[in-house]
User: Which sequence fits this backbone?
């Protein structure tokens, strides 16, 4: 079995598998070169380019997984939403009522992502897992209502209190649509899928319990591959995360992995080295990574990763040091 999948199933391993969020990103000069030729949307919609970008980090580093190159907003385009990137997503803000009426992703619209997964699966070494992903309903709704990224998404938070029924219907719709999108990715060969709930942390405990948690759970329900749920800055409802029913929970750097694990219980955990550590020096990287490993204590079910995406100013050699430390 591929090491990542074994870890997600909490089988004992000699050492944890490692991959890195945003591993195919702007910290790699070869990524920046490709992006000079291809705007972001074009890169995602051309399987030749998307496959090449997905494989870039695996050519340099001994990583245990490839995550398909796309964005959490990509399937929304296949649902008729126009999205631009500069560099983050920009779109015309919608109402919750309109979101609730969006159709499922058009199969032709998501085909480039599906084809990229097939090609990546055919090209990676047999022990390397292919990770598919989607944005969680709450996080997608945050962008759809706001129209772009935001520090704390006030339009989402306003809608949650002023239009609870329409908001709840919008989350149900997004959960169904993302479930079918993830299912198609698994059908094309994704070995595991990650649900990114990047902005769930702006909600209160009660809002997570009533809306974000159940809609994430509905998205992952009965998918036929191991699932990872990642909601950074969610320490205030860490004890509620297991309601999502994922096999593994991603942890940011704000909480020690051993303490978080105790709260989460019988699940796998992924994380949680602060990406800022990769901006320091080899000794600091080795020492800090060793601390994460020590806190995880060799327990079955640890997937080594950063606590969030790799920073664009990271020297690629620093990721090499990290991978060698974890594999050494
Ligand atoms: O080249 C560029 O300038 C584009 C930057 C970029 C990249 C590399 C964007 C725009 N998206 C991506 C790819 C991407 N996005 C991946 C690919 C696989 C990999 O990890 O290597 C993934 C998994 C995502 C997921 C994503 N997009 C998230 C969830 C993870 C997180 O960071 O919390 C979020 C919130 C987005 C939105 C988004 N898309 C792009 C940017 C710069 C952002 C975030 C900033 C914003 O909200 O404005």
Assistant:
């Amino acid at each position: 079995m591929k090491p990542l999948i074994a870890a997600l199933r909490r089988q004992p391993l000699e050492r944890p598998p490692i991959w890195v969020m945003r591993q195919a990103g702007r910290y790699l000069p070869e990524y920046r070169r490709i992006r000079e030729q291809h705007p972001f949307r074009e890169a995602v919609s051309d399987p030749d380019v998307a496959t090449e970008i997905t494989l870039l980090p695996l050519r340099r580093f001994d990583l245990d997984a490839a995550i398909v190159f796309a964005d959490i907003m990509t399937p929304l385009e296949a649902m008729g939403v126009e999205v631009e990137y500069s560099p983050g997503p920009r779109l015309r803000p919608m109402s919750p009522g309109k979101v609730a009426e969006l159709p499922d992703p058009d199969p032709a619209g998501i085909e480039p992502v599906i084809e990229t997964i097939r090609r990546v699966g055919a090209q990676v070494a047999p022990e390397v897992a292919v990770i598919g992903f989607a944005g969680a309903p709450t996080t997608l709704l945050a962008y759809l209502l706001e129209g772009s990224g935001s520090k704390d998404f006030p339009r989402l938070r306003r809608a949650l209190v002023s239009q609870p029924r329409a908001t709840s219907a919008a989350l149900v719709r997004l959960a169904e649509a993302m479930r079918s999108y993830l299912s198609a990715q698994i059908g094309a060969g994704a070995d595991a899928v990650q649900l990114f709930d990047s902005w769930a942390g702006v909600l209160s405990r009660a809002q997570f319990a009533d809306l974000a948690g159940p809609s994430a759970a509905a998205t992952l329900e009965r998918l036929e591959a191991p699932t990872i749920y990642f909601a950074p800055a969610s320490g205030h409802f860490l004890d509620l995360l297991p309601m999502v029913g994922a096999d593994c929970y991603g942890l940011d750097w704000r909480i020690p992995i051993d303490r978080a694990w105790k709260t989460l219980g019988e699940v796998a955990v992924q994380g949680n080295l602060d990406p800022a550590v990769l901006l320091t020096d080899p000794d600091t990287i080795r020492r800090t990574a060793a601390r994460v490993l020590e806190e995880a204590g060799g327990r079955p079910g640890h997937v080594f990763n950063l606590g969030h995406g790799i920073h664009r100013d990271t020297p690629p050699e620093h990721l090499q040091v990290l991978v060698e430390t974890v594999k050494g």
Notes: DSSP finds 14 helices and nine strands in the chain. The chain has a mean pLDDT of 98.
